[in-house]
Backbone:
């Protein structure tokens, strides 16, 4: 064998190329969209699936993890009942009094979706499939614009295969009281690949809470590739929250691309509980001064779960602030990686950026890796980062057990305290309470083992 | 009644306790005094069951129950309470939540029903007022950012709530000003009772002016070298430990 540069394509890579050929005729979109897809699949043919030597994928060797490419889900709607939604979401998230926008196996479910009357004029929603067939100018000029990593392997797959999603407009100066709840439910018994893409435009002075819930009914080993492009105009405020509870064998590839305008305030949060493999990419670009981003998350992992959070925060203009706080609890052979890249461009004076990632290991075989990456080209800035990985504190445990608490109680209290620091950053009290209960249930499930 | 016989223990491989024998009948308060490093805290950890403190010989029972067989929380349920020399900070756990879990855990283990939240709040607020602990502090994470005095009061508050049958106080006087020392001592004295024994560990005689002991023992190099009445504390204060511990030179 010679030391050639051609890498053998994997079964999954070959499968993806073949599936594109088979399904492209059935994917929605006009000529412009088709061109985007063709270009994306060509790029993918060149890049292949990302592997460890690609810096952004250091902790997730997707090339070896993705053994095969599941068949793309088709455009037929697998209907679910509201009772099934309730079952998959749980009473708390189902009962938020939110607007519901429901997708079943990647397809928009109009039956179960509703914008509640009192805010009907403030939120507009169109399905992506419909938008792609006749994309307006704003869509074309904003499409795929927020991603600072040029070689976005998984993003190209999303563009090639995207079938449906939510295109949402929060109108100028709207102050939504009800969350907009995007519910993605996998119902299918067969393994399927689901590719979704969402565009959320929050107009000037508007504020909203947008919750994305990824849940499952049965336990299909869905392969999901989901991209959310979110744009905050001047003075907009968004609480953007994700709840990921996919099936135990599923893979979940998610990419948030957020563009922040002047005086805007973005608060992101991600709770990761499900999926065998999950990758949360978060790209944030500041386009306007005096804006801020607070991004945090909690991941609770056990068994052989693998989760990776990789962020790119790009400060491109002066006077912006970013904060990240991520907490990961790992049991059994759970593994998690965190990469936080902070870029401060030459013009971005007075940037204030801080980033923290903490892992708590409940077993000897769990692993948490964190890697900060700072690229700072401006001098008048404050940037900080930190990462820790450790076990529960022995001294604290002794103190609490001396007060009569069982090992289970002590662990529960200390772990809830650990993740609580991140949950506290969620402004919506109902969502915060619902997530806290889920963490309690997760811990309860552990002690039932 | 606490009954310790010929207790030997190692920490990190070194022999620290070298044959302690001690009986504290119910209703009595015994003081243990001794130089730094003599093994006072070690004794408190061995009795409460801390990991890494290994008993190599001897016994310790509380009202006939073999403490050395029990887990840390089981000992607490059996009535052992240790007021720590350096109480730990528990970030993220509000004091009243900590207290409620502690109380309900020992109540459950002792076969009592859990207290309802209103009953619990009444109990805690009442005892807190007696000890000069402000209500606001109960909302804060336990011991986080508390002053030295607040931490020690909080230890005594926990003791009052959990109603142990053996109270071990490890240098509860350290870091307290005279007013705090008085309130804390009052709190401890209020807990003296015919069915409770107390072991008060201190380096200085001062505390024993306020918590007057029935007996005083001098600990040095892991062994009780001398025992006497409350007047022994005053003698120690005047002449220092040397006179009482020279036996270990033999
Ligand atoms: N973890 C440990 N490993 C080894 N030696 C220890 C450890 N902890 C305490 N010691 C030693 O045990 C002896 C008694 O300590 P301690 O019980 O804290 O004394 P006191 O409370 O009387 O000041 C000291 O010599 C101390 O250095
Ligand atoms: Mg000590």
Residues:
């Amino acid at each position: 064998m010679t030391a050639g540069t051609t890498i053998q394509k994997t079964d999954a890579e070959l499968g993806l190329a073949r599936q594109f050929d088979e399904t492209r005729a059935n994917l929605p979109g006009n000529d412009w969209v088709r061109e985007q897809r063709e270009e994306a699949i060509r790029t993918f043919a060149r890049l292949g699936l990302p592997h460890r030597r690609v810096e952004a994928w250091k902790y997730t060797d997707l090339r070896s993890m993705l053994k095969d490419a599941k068949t793309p889900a088709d455009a037929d709607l697998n209907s679910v009942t509201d009772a099934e939604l309730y079952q998959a979401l749980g009473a708390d998230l189902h009962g938020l009094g939110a607007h519901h926008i429901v997708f079943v196996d990647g397809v928009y479910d109009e039956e179960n979706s509703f914008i509640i009357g009192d805010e009907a004029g403030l939120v507009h929603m169109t399905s992506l499939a419909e938008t792609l067939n006749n994309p307006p100018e704003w869509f074309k000029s904003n499409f795929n614009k927020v991603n600072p990593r040029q070689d976005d392997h998984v993003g190209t797959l999303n563009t090639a295969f995207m079938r449906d999603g939510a295109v949402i407009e929060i109108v100028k100066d709207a102050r939504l009281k009800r969350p907009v709840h995007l519910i993605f439910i996998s119902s299918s018994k067969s393994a399927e690949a689901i590719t979704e893409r969402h565009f959320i435009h929050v107009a000037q002075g508007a504020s909203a809470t947008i919750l994305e819930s990824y849940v499952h009914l049965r336990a299909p080993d869905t392969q999901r590739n989901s991209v959310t492009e979110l744009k905050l105009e001047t003075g907009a405020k968004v609480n953007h929250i994700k709840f990921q509870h996919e099936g135990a064998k599923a893979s979940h590839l998610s990419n948030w691309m957020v563009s922040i305008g002047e005086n805007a305030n973005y608060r992101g949060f991600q709770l990761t509980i499900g999926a065998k493999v999950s990758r949360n990419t978060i790209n944030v670009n500041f386009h306007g001064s005096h804006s801020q981003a607070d991004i945090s998350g909690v991941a609770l992992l056990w068994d052989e779960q693998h989760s990776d959070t990789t962020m790119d925060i790009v400060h491109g203009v002066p006077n912006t602030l970013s904060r990240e706080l991520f907490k990961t609890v790992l049991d059994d052979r759970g593994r998690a990686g965190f990469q936080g890249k902070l870029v401060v461009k030459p013009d971005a004076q007075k940037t204030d950026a801080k980033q923290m990632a903490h892992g708590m290991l409940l077993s000897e075989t769990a692993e948490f890796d964190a890697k900060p990456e700072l690229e700072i080209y401006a001098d008048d800035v404050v940037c900080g980062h930190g990462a820790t990985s450790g076990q529960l504190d022995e001294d604290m445990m002794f103190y609490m057990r001396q007060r009569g608490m069982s090992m289970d109680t002590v662990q529960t209290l200390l772990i809830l305290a650990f993740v609580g620091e991140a949950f506290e950053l969620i402004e919506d009290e109902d969502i915060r309470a619902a997530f806290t209960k889920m963490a309690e249930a997760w811990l309860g499930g552990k002690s039932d083992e | 009644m606490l009954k310790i016989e010929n207790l030997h223990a190692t920490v990190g491989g070194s022999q620290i306790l070298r044959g302690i024998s001690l009986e504290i009948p119910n209703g009595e308060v015994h003081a243990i005094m001794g130089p730094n490093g003599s093994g006072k805290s070690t004794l408190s950890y061995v009795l409460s069951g801390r990991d890494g403190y290994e008993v190599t010989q001897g016994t310790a029972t509380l009202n006939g129950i073999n403490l050395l067989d029990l887990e840390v929380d089981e000992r607490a349920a059996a009535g052992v309470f240790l007021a720590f020399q350096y109480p730990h900070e528990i970030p993220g756990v509000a004091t009243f939540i900590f207290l409620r879990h502690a109380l309900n855990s020992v109540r459950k283990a002792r076969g009592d029903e859990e207290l309802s939240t209103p009953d619990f709040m009444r109990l805690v607020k009442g005892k807190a007022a007696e000890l000069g602990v402000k209500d606001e502090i109960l909302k804060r994470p336990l011991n986080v950012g508390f002053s030295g005095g607040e931490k020690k009061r909080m230890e005594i508050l926990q003791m009052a709530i959990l109603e142990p049958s053996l109270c071990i106080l490890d240098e509860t006087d350290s870091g307290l000003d005279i007013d705090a020392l008085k309130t804390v001592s009052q709190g401890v004295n209020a807990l003296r009772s015919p069915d409770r024994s107390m072991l008060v560990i201190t380096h200085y005689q001062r505390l024993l002016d306020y918590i007057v002991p029935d007996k005083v023992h001098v600990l040095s190099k892991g062994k009780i070298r001398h025992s006497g009445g409350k007047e022994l504390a005053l003698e120690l204060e005047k002449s220092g430990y040397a006179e009482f511990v020279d036996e270990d030179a033999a």
In short: The radius of gyration of chain A is 21 Å.
